[in-house]
Amino acid sequence: MCLAALAATAPAGELGALLRALEERYNRARTLEAAFEQSYRGQGRAWKPERGKLWLRKPGKMRWEYSEPAGKLFVTDGRFAWLYSPALREVERTRLKETDDLRAPLAFLLGKLDFQRDFGRFVWRREGPDYWIVAEPRSERLLFSRVEFRVDAELRIRHLRVEGQDRSVMEFRFDNERLNPPLEDSLFEFRPPPGVRVIESNL
């Protein structure tokens, strides 16, 4: 299904059809690979954009391997989230269910995606062949207050903007997405390098 076909329907039905098509596409995927660019604004400042490659596997496994800054890693193995900062010579380990990292909303890409269950309000607009959709979560207890994403004609999420309850903003841009590539188990394993300090958070 492409967005050109969706454009022929009534506006409310068009959005509903788009959301269902996204759910079908990503819920059927077992793995995903993509290039990413990440930026962050918060606490009165903006951090330099970071880039790298992302791998995802159901359920709950992710690997963010950064080329800028080189060597930085964010890995989840289904139980724990590991954030390795080579410049600081330290690793932070957090239980996956308790992590406050704003990458967490991205887990829906390979989870059980259900927009009507998780989000209570949608605002959307057309931008050329693409759609911009703003979704506000049903629960006010989450660490993010809304998610905005751009979907292209191939139903790929190309841009994701996550706004935190503290008004911080994390943005991701994705390219070269591949669904269901074969992935080695070792991608989602992490062992702290020798001599690196391990910080246990929320354990």
Explained architecture:
The protein has a single domain, classed as Clam (outer membrane lipoprotein receptor (LolB), chain A), CATH 2.50.20. It is mainly beta. The N and C termini lie far apart (44 Å). The N terminus is likely disordered. A 12-stranded mixed β-sheet has the order 7-8-9-10-11-1-2-3-4-5-6-12. The protein is globular and about 55 Å long.
Question: What features would you highlight for this structure?
Answer:
203 residues, mainly beta, outer membrane lipoprotein receptor (LolB), chain A, 3 helices, globular, disordered N terminus
Give a brief outline of the structure.
With 203 residues, the chain is mostly beta strands. Helix content is 13%, strand content 49%.
Mean pLDDT: 85
The name CATH uses for the topology is outer membrane lipoprotein receptor (LolB), chain A
Number of helices: 3
Q: How do the helices and strands follow one another from N- to C-terminus?
A: HHEEEEEEHEEEEEE
* Morphology: globular
- Helical proportion? 10-25%
The biggest beta sheet reads: 12 strands, mixed
- How many strand elements? 12
Strand order of the largest sheet: 7-8-9-10-11-1-2-3-4-5-6-12
Q: Beta-sheet strand percentage? A: over 45%
| Top CATH class | Mainly Beta
Give the low-confidence spans.
1-10
Query: Ends: how far apart?
Result: 44 Å
Q: What would CATH call the architecture?
A: Clam
Q: What would you report as the Rg, rounded to the nearest angstrom? A: 17 Å
Helix/strand class: mainly beta
Number of domains: 1
